[in-house]
Design brief:
globular; alpha+beta; single chain; Fructose-1,6-Bisphosphatase, Chain A, domain 1; D-Maltodextrin-Binding Protein, domain 2; 33% helix
Length: 280
Amino acid sequence: MRTELLALRRFADTLADEAARRLLTWFGRTTASTKYDGSFVTQADLEVDRFIHQAIGNGYPRHGILTEETSPFYRGNEFTWVVDPLDGTNNFANGLPVWGCSIALLHQGQPVLAVVDFPPLGQRISAVRGEGAVANGRPLAVPPPTEVHGNHFFITDSRGVRMLEFAVRPKIRLLGSTAYDLGAVSLGMAVACCEFLPKIWDIAGGWLVLSEARATVAPLLPGGSVFPLQPGRDYSDLVFPLLAAASPAIWDSTRAGIRLKAGGDRVARRLEDQGWVVDL
């Protein structure tokens, strides 16, 4: 299995290389359209999605593919690629260079390989289960601070800003890319991040990188789970509230400072319908 995973990692790196080339070609000259859920999609998303489908189909025809744009149904193949061809589409469409491509490989529904690439920033983080994480080829391990203070960063997403209250010491930052938020914790740039309503392709790669970098990553809410994925499920509308932190102690203290804002009944019902216990 180890030898097979290392070969698959090389393949994932080639996918990320070509995705980066195509995305950079489009950056600054594409327009966005609005999808059914109100989010943006660009020609770049769709082109890279098609390329990755074709490359995986040619190289590993027995592998499944789960992507945001065209393949949200998980069929339970032994190996399944979970891909967000362009995470941070709004940033991309508006010319902000904080976006990337997230590629993860699941075995029996569990992440075993991840390559998360941010071409405009020249940053690539990757991991193989049991082999650790690397950033631009260098071993990666999250250095938890001895004390959390007001000059540290805590990152959340736009839905978190709208729907949650945060009583946390670090400064709150909103970067516009779930994959980069998780990457920022793994790289030690932020002590924690909360992603309130991410989809599985937003977090699959970052989850493994954080785990292999010895950070703490877990569902924000009890009652549900992220992995293993469940065969036969459509993941297009499922969300996975997530909290990541540099250490278990920071995870616990951050979680204690998060509350649902008044008037959040609608989102609470949505989460409860999916099995989460909304105890914020």
